[in-house]
Design brief:
heterodimer, A: about 140 residues, alpha+beta, STM4215-like, 5-stranded mixed β-sheet, 7 strands, about 35% strand, B: about 160 residues, mainly beta, Pnp Oxidase, Chain A, 6-stranded antiparallel β-sheet, 2 helices, 8 strands
């Protein structure tokens, strides 16, 4: 029997945890309106919230959730983006424990960060680094 | 109501076990009696299994050859009910998984298990008596920890019924 986890809780926890890791760099969910004036910032997007369902008529017969959130690091200097990505790797990859702070946090068995790729947007003059983080959450 | 009269998805099946650590298994006659079987198939007795493995009867036969006869003959022999290796998501506090753990430790507890399959209204039940063996926890990272156990049904102790 497994409780259905709430994506609202995930969002609050991700926002808090990322903010703690990269402070004072601002963290936004999905989009930042001030990107033209901010030299460094981070956005995140949550996806793949899914607990496998198992046989029978009882709704709570499910497995654990392993959601993924993508972290997008935007910087005007390419090196800054790499530095911030390293900060995230050092503090988040392999992390096990309370995720998201005392108020909205929950226990995770493991955070698994995959550094995907970096890029550069010439029009906006923004360097970008993309990372994926998978959470293993006991339910 | 009667037997389900539809092709059923695999998700329609559920596995239940008799409660308590010292159960009294159903008699052979009761295993085919819906009045005896359906009280076991309630949510409190549900085993949280991932999928219901193949159930029914194994194949076993003897091949007889008679000199002078053109064809030999295959005679079914000792075809035992199928052993079921079951995988469940492991919650260490799940009361019914703890019963399975206790049965495997004991080795001689006979318990009635019921598999139900439903089309939403009608239900078919397969009930059998069995003993639990091979209780293992598989905690590979990347998914939930799995609880794996095998139920070995006793010979001649199973029955089919429905909620007609």
């Amino acid at each position: 029997m497994a409780t259905q986890q709430s994506p609202i809780q995930y969002g609050k926890a991700i926002q808090y945890q990322l903010q703690q890791i990269v402070t004072p760099v601002p963290v936004y969910a999905a989009f930042n309106r001030n990107f033209a004036t901010q030299p460094k910032f981070i956005t995140w997007m949550l996806r793949n919230v899914h607990q496998p369902v198992y046989t029978g008529q009882i709704q709570s017969v499910k497995g654990i959730d392993r959601p993924i959130f993508q972290i997008n690091i935007f910087t005007q200097q390419i090196e800054d983006g790499f530095t911030i990505s390293n900060q995230i790797l050092q503090l988040l990859h392999g992390y096990s424990g309370l995720f998201g702070g005392a108020t909205n946090g929950f226990y995770i068995s493991k955070a698994d960060v995959m550094w995907l790729y970096n890029s550069y947007d010439n029009e906006d003059k923004l360097a970008q680094v993309y990372l994926d983080c998978t959470l293993d959450i006991p339910t | 109501m009667a037997l389900p009269n539809k092709v059923l998805p695999g998700f329609s099946a559920a596995l239940y076990c008799q409660p308590t650590s010292t159960p009294t298994p159903l008699t052979v006659a009761q295993l085919s009696l819906v009045a005896s079987v359906s009280p076991i198939a309630v949510s409190g007795n549900l085993l949280p299994v991932e999928a219901i493995p193949a159930f029914g009867q194994d194949d076993a036969m003897a091949n007889f050859s008679v000199a002078g006869s053109r064809q030999s003959d295959k005679i079914p022999t000792q075809s035992a009910p199928t052993s079921m290796t079951i995988t469940a998501a492991w919650n260490p506090s799940d009361a019914n998984l703890l019963l399975m753990r206790g049965d495997a430790y004991n080795g001689t507890v006979d318990r009635t298990f019921v598999i139900s399959a439903t089309d939403g209204t009608n239900i078919v039940y397969y009930a059998f008596n069995g003993r639990v063996s091979q209780f293992q926890i598989d905690a590979q990272p990347g998914a939930e920890a799995k609880c794996v156990f095998t139920v070995h049904p006793r010979g001649n102790q199973y029955g089919w019924s429905n909620n007609a």
